Amino acid sequence: LTPLLPHIDHRNRGMRTRLGCLSHKSDSYNDFTAILPDKPNRALKRLSTEEATRWADSFDVLLSHKYGLAAFRAFLKTEFSEENLEFWLACEDFKKTRSAAKLASKAQRIFEEFIDVQAPREVNIDFQTRELTRRNMQEPSLSCFDQAQGKVHSLMEKDSYPRFLRSKIYADLLSQTQRRLS
């Protein structure tokens, strides 16, 4: 019985850590160094209010901007749904694959990580899309994830993106860029 106690204690500690993370879930970032890539302080100084405001023009404008993408990713993490963006980005990278040898292995990795039932970072897609993607995997091509990627893009655009634009993360970021101007 004694050898089991450290194991039980370890599991409880892990659970406490996970619960602690949940209780600290926040929609606010006062320190944007956590969300901005490479040299964050300099990055935030270079981000103009005009650029950050333009992210509200369209979802694709947000996705095409390095810091917009980072801020959106940070927001999705607060909602525990960053797998959608990670899948979309993996598909974008996959479409740039030029080596036929790498195509099948990259496709398999994406499928196992995001599409397969019970995948570690399973995205929320309908049964028909999942099955079509499974069939596409029999002969992977650069377009084998197009339908699934489109569904995830649409889901983020209609659901997460409007919430991001109303979020404290986005409001705080805009306010920080405006404060620099004063």
TrEMBL record:
Main location: membrane
Domain (RGS): residue spans on this chain: 58-174
Pfam families with a match to the protein in the record: RGS
Signal peptide from the UniProt entry: none
UniProt subcellular location: Cell membrane; Cell projection, Dendrite; Nucleus; Perikaryon
Gene3D superfamilies assigned: 1.10.196.10, Regulator of G-protein Signalling 4, domain 2
Entry membrane topology: Peripheral membrane protein
UniProtKB keywords: Cell membrane, Cell projection, Membrane, Nucleus, Signal transduction inhibitor
GO annotation (BP), single: negative regulation of signal transduction
GO cellular component, one term: nucleus
Family annotation (PANTHER family): REGULATOR OF G PROTEIN SIGNALING, REGULATOR OF G-PROTEIN SIGNALING 8
Protein name in the entry: Regulator of G-protein signaling 8
Species whose genome carries this gene: Oceanites oceanicus (Wilson's storm petrel)
